[in-house]
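Batch 3, record 17
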Amino acid sequence: MNRRTMGKALMGLATGAAMLALGVGAADAQEKMKVGFVYVGPISDHGYSYQHDQGRLAVEKELGDKVTTTFVENVPEGADAERVIEQLASSGHKLIFTTSFGFMNPTLKVAQRHPDVKFEHATGYKRSANVATYSARFYEARTVIGQIAGKMTKSNIIGYIGSFPIPEVVSGINAFTIAMREVNPKAEVRVVWVNSWYDPGKEAEAAKALIDQGADVISLHTDSPAAIQVAQERGLWVFGQSSDMTRFGPKAHLTAIVDDWREYYVNRVKAALDGSWKSQDTWGGFKDHMLFLAPYNPALPADVVAAAEKTRTDIMEGKRHSFQGPVKDQSGKVVIAEGKQATDEQILKMDWYVEGVQGKVPK
Amino acid sequence: MSAELALLGPILAAMLAAATPLLFAALGELVVEKSGVLNLGVEGMMLVGAVCGFAVAVQTGSSTAGFVAGAAAGAGMAALFGVLTLLLLANQVATGLALTLFGVGLSALIGQGFVGIPIADVPELYIPGLTDLPVIGKALFGQDALVYLALAAVPAVHWFLYATRKGLILRAVGENHAAAHALGYKVIRIRFLAVLFGGAMSGMAGAYLSLDYTPMWAEGISAGRGWIALALVVFATWKPGRVLLGAWLFGGVTIAQLHVQGLGIDIPSQLLSMLPYLATVIVLVVISRDVARIRLNAPASLGKVFHPDA
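Prediction for the assembled complex:
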């Protein structure tokens, strides 16, 4: 699959080069800035990579007269990534978005070789003069859905399907659990790691296992809609991830955390065009329009929806923080003191579970 | 303890379902290898079967039609392999690997318009009384038709290979194609049919995934199950009954590790994810120590090129 898309990309580049050589549209190409996008999944995944591509399309729509965009999908997080990014950088792309955590080191390596090219790396923490980073405060949305889960569960067991035990996912589990316990102190979260971002078969098996253990609400931090289908079949509740997954389980799908990169991408491309671009770290939440919630399931009671909306607007207005102290870890030790909030650094390095999560974080 | 015991039923049921695609693909490959052909393209045939089955099911609204289309698509891929290796005498290992790479790309191409489309899954069997039995009820009487079809294929393949004249001829071709040829058996035709059967079974395995197991199309949906099926054939020393055991073992470990995590038992999840593969490797090593048994059961002409004039 990677070979195929690589091949497609290379063919596209070759065609582009041939067009330049023939002088077709050469003047045009000189005026328009080329912007590249590297995706970890297929844009047709209707999830993580799809949302990034919506950002690219927004750039095309708004700035199509000034820029052209290229994307390469299905790029594995490894040696191939560096080659793909290098290929984009050396073929005249002046701004390149690398949209997965695992592209961090390849992006930095290529950036070092191309100081005149600007890079934007999603969800990473390493920057340099020409590498900026950006991410969304996904945990903010998990506070809202955690609260909904706490109110909707009857068995007081919530199943949580995790991809990899990285801080982004662990902090999501914690934010979810804190909000859930606030409204329902008896509920607990059981986590199953599938060690993959996209493996429908395994995600479905994990969902079934959790449901068989008594979970009646499933939350996921993986990208396929397999768990939505399982919840629909079993007549239980589930939250979608990355994009609105309602059509895979209209009855079961409560809402979904949707990433939205459109505004950020358009702004960054504008900055690159007018010369104001500089390396920085952007970490946006609800208020920066980097994420929103998919329409609530009509089956949700009105008071649950109203409470969820209040939580969301409180977070937006800065009245509520996902990690508001006191927050205790599993041993009961207070990690975030009363009256304090977790610092960004604490969230970015989170490798412990809060009270209410079963099991231990795999190390 | 009773909570854990109550989980036994669901684990058994999930294990049978997880073993089903492996059973289909491994039984097909077993027949292919018994005829003396090594087709490493199982993963590719599975993927093409999965996407074609899904596409037809979406267009016609019938999962039965989709399942048949999946089998046909798998057989189509296998026909390509058969023409290249049996008629044009291409190297079987290289052609099989190429078939997998080709299938991965082709299925993604065909599937472009089918990602993100939901379909209804195949209904599960429900027999009042029997399905409600504790522990074994759901596992034995609450599966969907394809699970039973895969289970039925085990004795069917065994019966064909060891109790029919055609099966005897197929095995003879796999043991010594020159002798079979000298006796007047049409080696290439027999092998071609075996390859087609293997392809159809792989296609069914794929269609089971995209129509039933997770009713959707996603690139690379087989996620390496084709390779596991290949390993299972050796693991089972080319015996259908042992393929069943291997598929259950693999499916069981896969499901059990998810439950262990959910129960919060403190074992690293990465280690647990590795377990099914580790189990396969260990059993392979144990079996391979008994060289005599491997020699006795492995088809002697496996992977060897046959040319009638040679």
